Amino acid sequence: MRSLPALTSLRVFETTGKCLSFTQAATQLHVTQSAVSRQIKQLEDYLGVPLFIRRHHQLELTEAGSQLLTKLEQSFNLMETAVQELRDPKQRQKLTLLIPPTFASRWLAPRLANFHTHSPELELSIHNSDSEHSLFDCSIRFGRTARPSHYSELVMLEQHIAVCAPELLEQAEQLNGTLLHILHKGERLPIWENWLQAAGLTGQVDAGRGMEFSTLDQVTNAAVNGAGFAIVDKRMINRELKTGALVPFSQVEVSGPYGYWLDIRAERQGLAKVMRFTEWLREVSPD
């Protein structure tokens, strides 16, 4: 038997903690202000700690109140999702993902048939912008480190190789041509610098020169059309490597430091559909 205060008082506290006003909470909950105040007092008495600092016409959360509010928001979100899934079977089958467009089109798309075999009961809804959807079940993120306040698991590190169009192979030995760079959040990724260091060519090639692109697809298309030389994650250009549209001009490979991370908010970790997707990501080959 769980030892918990009344669910009503927890719900009243969550609403009050969000708006920091007994009056506004009463309006949202369709009760009187005195009822809200009474429920908060009962909860504080049960816990033995104050949850609010009461000032003139103003409420502030205590440290205990702030901690409780964070946990309650997660718990109520999870309960709401569980109820919605039972009321709407179609919603239970939909897994909503936030995924970078390059990863979605170049890595995930070729493996969707495999995912359907693994989890035929799930339908994916894939988005590449935070503005497209208010609530994602989980996300794939490009970065270097785990995300705070989330469950973050590294899916794969980038494996960078040096490539160019076949017609540029003769120039590749001296890297006599344009270097193609990828931008991330408006900044040039130090991919060329890392590769030149691994290849022992630092100081022999000016990594600062060349053209910049905002997506890997743009860099890949430019390289395929002979615009210059690129350092690219080999998993993202499998198609071009197989067809010979791009060819490696060195055996040097650099692992990381960037990679793709699976991020899940705490309140969604226990969802069966999220667990199925996580399980599949761990099982499927990244190559």
What would a concise description of this structure say?
The chain has 287 residues and is an alpha/beta fold.
Detailed description of the structure:
This protein has 287 residues and is of the alpha/beta class. It has three domains: 66 residues, Arc Repressor Mutant, subunit A (Orthogonal Bundle), CATH 1.10.10; 91 residues, D-Maltodextrin-Binding Protein, domain 2; 100 residues, D-Maltodextrin-Binding Protein, domain 2 (3-Layer(aba) Sandwich), CATH 3.40.190. Helices cover 42% and strands 24% of the residues. The chain contains twelve helices and twelve strands. The strands form two sheets. Strands 3, 4, 5, 6, 7, 8, 9, 10, 11 and 12 form a ten-stranded mixed sheet that branches. It has a two-stranded antiparallel sheet with strand order 1-2. Strand 7 and strand 8 form a beta hairpin. Helix 1 crosses helix 2, helix 1 packs across helix 3 and helix 2 packs across helix 3. It is elongated, with a radius of gyration of 26 Å. The protein starts with 6 loop residues before the first helix and ends with a helix.
How is the secondary structure organized here?
Elements: H1 7-19, H2 22-29, H3 33-47, E1 52-55, E2 58-61, H4 63-87, H5 89-93, E3 94-98, H6 101-108, H7 112-118, E4 123-127, E5 138-143, E6 150-164, H8 169-172, E7 179-184, E8 187-188, H9 191-198, E9 211-213, H10 216-224, E10 229-233, H11 238-243, E11 247-248, E12 254-265, H12 272-283
Parallel strand pairs: 3-4, 3-5, 7-9, 7-10
Antiparallel strand pairs: 1-2, 5-12, 6-10, 6-11, 6-12, 7-8
Helix pairs in contact: 1-2, 1-3, 1-4, 2-3
GO molecular function, one term: sequence-specific DNA binding
InterPro entries: LysR-type_TF_proteobact-type, LysR_HTH_N, LysR_subst-bd, WH-like_DNA-bd_sf, WH_DNA-bd_sf
GO biological process, one term: DNA-templated transcription
